[in-house]
Amino acid sequence: MMPRHQGNGYSNGYPRGKTFDISPHRFQPRSSVHGNRKHRKLIVRLGIVALLLFAFSFWVFSSHPILSVVSLGLVSSTTDLEFETVRYYDLSNVQGTARGWEREERILLCVPLRDAESHLPMFFSHLRNLTYPHHSIDLAFLVSDSKDRTLEVLTDNLERIQADPDPEQPYGEVSIIEKDFGQKVNQDVESRHGFAAQASRRKLMAQARNWLLSAALRPYHSWVYWRDVDVETAPFTILEDLMRHNKDVIVPNVWRPLPDWLGGEQPYDLNSWQESETALALADTLDEDAVIVEGYAEYATWRPHLAYLRDPYGDPDMEMEIDGVGGVSILAKAKVFRAGVHFPAFSFQKHAETEGFGKMAKQMQCSVVGLPNYVIWHLYEPSVDDIRHMEEMEQERVAREKEEQEKKLKEQKMKEEFGDASGQWEMDKQKIREKQEQQQQAGNGEKPAVGAA
Ligand SMILES: *[C@@H]1O[C@H](CO)[C@@H](O)[C@H](O)[C@H]1NC(C)=O
User: Fold this and answer.
1) Residue range 356-369: mean pLDDT, rounded
2) What phi and psi, each to the nearest 5 degrees, are found at residue 329?
3) Is 290 near ligand 1, meaning CB less than 6 Å away?
4) Mean of pLDDT over the chain
5) Which of 9, 35, 134, 385 has its CA 20 to 30 A from that of 339?
6) Residue nearest to ligand 1 atom 4, measured at CA
7) Is the beta carbon of 129 within 6 A of some atom in ligand 1?
8) 21 confidence band (pLDDT: 50, 70, 90)
9) Number of neighbours of residue 333 by Cβ within 10 angstroms
């Protein structure tokens, strides 16, 4: 059989010129003499090309002999890489210190979002007010299982703050991560806080946090700050305030305001606590997979809660060692996560999510601290009971108002009627008096009846 392609011939009637032609016929079995010859030819050709290239580069760089060697990538030091695709990081520089804002330490601010559209304007108002240098903060949002316009409203707000003419406003890098976890629990207060839903809900939340962090944490971050969107009031200096304590993990106390008829205020986050003997004994009696959730009558743990140890006039810098942490506002050194501490989506020492995170950090010899007298305020969301109570109060108010209105109307009517009546009465009185006088006069004149009788 004649091979159809000869070295420099014409394969299909067109001159081959400089085009490089690949066709199946080129790859002949190695045993074929023709194939070996072609192979040798190819090597020779490649050799010539390489020689030409080398001669060319030698000619170009002959006046800069060192540069020519470096440019060929033959010599290069690790600390002075020339390639754009190679990055060098010294992680000993991103350990996190007490005065990070002076050293331009970068914070990754992580915000999990789910049906959070209504809270976003308030959240961005907080972002605008943060005093930690914004350019040293990277934002990472996780949007999951949302049925409202969370993503659109988030994007709008981000575009606005990143394009702000005030150079102090725009943040560093912003990541939006979208991922559903199939949270089936309804987002209303009763479902979210009901006891039965807690364990599975907390495990999904843990996964969400881990996905968000693993996608957003970069080698240049020194700190990670977790913040919920539904915080209503917090000091603008919260990042510096927490950072000054120089702890591996630190949380403020979280309370919430209440309507006056409910007492004005209340501890909110019961997930920050110190371990107790009772709880440890309880944990020993539970299944391996069980998850203790704090703040429910079902598990009486008798743990000292950060929330209840608040003294409104106490030193806001007072520290308390804790084991479980709540997730509303956590500042942690990035090295904690780098070392492998995470939010367990399984039962870790009978805990999951942020409480498990606290326990795991403790287990890894990290410092985990809460500030009982440094308080931030969670938004007050009325429970179904509260809403019913408020509706009853509203109905009562409306009923009372209606009653008063009716009473007023009646009084007015009575007054009018009484006014008429009194006029009539005066006239009647007058008539009676006149009659009496007439009768008296008549009687004085005659008196016949009595006398005659
Ligand atoms: C941010 O600061 C402004 C001006 O001081 C204030 O009106 C606003 O309420 C603050 N936002 C929050 C969420 O605290």
Assistant:
1) 98
2) -160, 95
3) no
4) 83
5) 134
6) 129
7) yes
8) very low
9) 27
Residue pair 334/94 in contact by the 8 Å Cβ criterion: yes
Rg of the chain on CA atoms, in Å: 42
- In the block, tokens 């304007």 appear at 121
**126 C-beta closer than 6 A to ligand 1:** yes
Question: Does the structure show a pLDDT above 90 at 297?
Answer: no
Q: Which ligand 1 atom sits nearest the alpha carbon of residue 234?
A: 14
At 54 the three-state DSSP class reads helix
Question: CA 443, CA 156: separation in Å to the nearest integer?
Answer: 102
Render pLDDT for 230-249 as a digit per residue (tens, 0 to 9).
999 999 999 999 999 999 99
CA 49, 50, 55, 57 dihedral sign is positive
Indicate whether residue 235 lines ligand 1 (CB < 6 A): no
Helix axes 198-216, 353-363, angle to 10 degrees: 60
Q: How far is the CA of 308 from the centre of ligand 1 (A)?
A: 27
Cα(236) to ligand 1 centroid in Å equals: 9
Residue of the nearest CA to atom 9 in ligand 1?
A: 125
User: What is the position in ligand 1's atom list of the atom closest to the CA of 129?
Assistant: 1
Report the residue count for the chain.
Answer: 453
Please list, in sequence order, all residues whose beta carbon lies within 8 angstroms of the beta carbon of residue 165, skipping any fewer than 6 positions away: none
Residue type at position 120: L
**Alpha carbons 287 and 206: distance in angstroms, whole number:** 20
Interval 161-185: pLDDT, tens: 999 999 999 999 999 999 999 876 5
Q: What is the DSSP letter of 320?
A: E
Residue of 129, 168, 229, 236 with the most ligand 1 atoms within 8 Å of its CB, for mutation: 129
Which protein residue's CA is at the shortest distance from atom 10 of ligand 1?
125
307 pLDDT higher than 70: yes
* In the predicted structure, residue 131 carries a pLDDT above the cut 70: yes
Do strands 368-378 and 249-257 pair parallel, antiparallel, or not at all (unpaired)?
A: parallel
Nearest residue (by CA) to ligand 1, atom 2, is 129
Instruction: Please work out whether the CB of residue 379 comes within 6 Å of at least one atom of ligand 1.
Output: no
- Residue appearing with tokens 């915000």: 111
Task: Return the residue whose CA atom lies nearest to atom 13 of ligand 1.
Answer: 126
Q: Determine whether the shortest distance from the Cβ of 440 to ligand 1 is under 6 A.
A: no
**Residue spans of beta strands (DSSP E) within 198-284:** 221-227, 231-233, 249-257, 265-267
Q: How far is the CA of 124 from the centre of ligand 1 (A)?
A: 10
Query: Residue 142: beta bridge partners?
Result: 112, 177
Q: Which residues pair with 369 in a beta bridge?
A: 250, 321
